[in-house]
Amino acid sequence: MLEQNNILAFKLNDATYLARLRLILDGGSIAYTHHAKSRMRLRKVSAQQVLKCLQFGKIFEPAHITIKGSWKATLAYYTGGDLIQVAAAISTNKQGDFVLIVTVIT
Q1: 64 is in which domain, residue-wise?
Q2: What CATH code is carried by the domain that includes residue 18?
């Protein structure tokens, strides 16, 4: 759990969220919740489709700070003929920033 002093310090809007998310993705720092993995299996969505959504998708649900201090937004992208939505949070741990996939929706 993040403490209050670990909240990411940058202006909150969709453009800065996307820029930060994609910068973190370039470093390969991505993790999946158990819930996200189960939804991916259930909905037959691959990790490659999730990554494409994060790299090229548009904001579907606006960026906001969660009660845990992470930035979260939902992105939407057409891939493999399907519209998928990925809820992703930008979090921080001892190793630095990472993207946490919260859930995947089709």
Answers
A1: 4-105
A2: 3.30.2310.40
pLDDT at 6: 54
Percentage of the chain lying above the pLDDT 70 cut: 90
Strands (E), 1-106: 30-32, 58-65, 71-79, 82-93, 96-105
Strands 58-65 and 30-32: unpaired
Query: How many helices (H) and strands (E) would you count in the chain?
Result: 3, 5
* Of 96, 94, 48, the residue nearest 86 (C-alpha): 48
Query: With contact defined as beta carbons under 8 Å apart, do 92 and 25 qualify?
Result: no
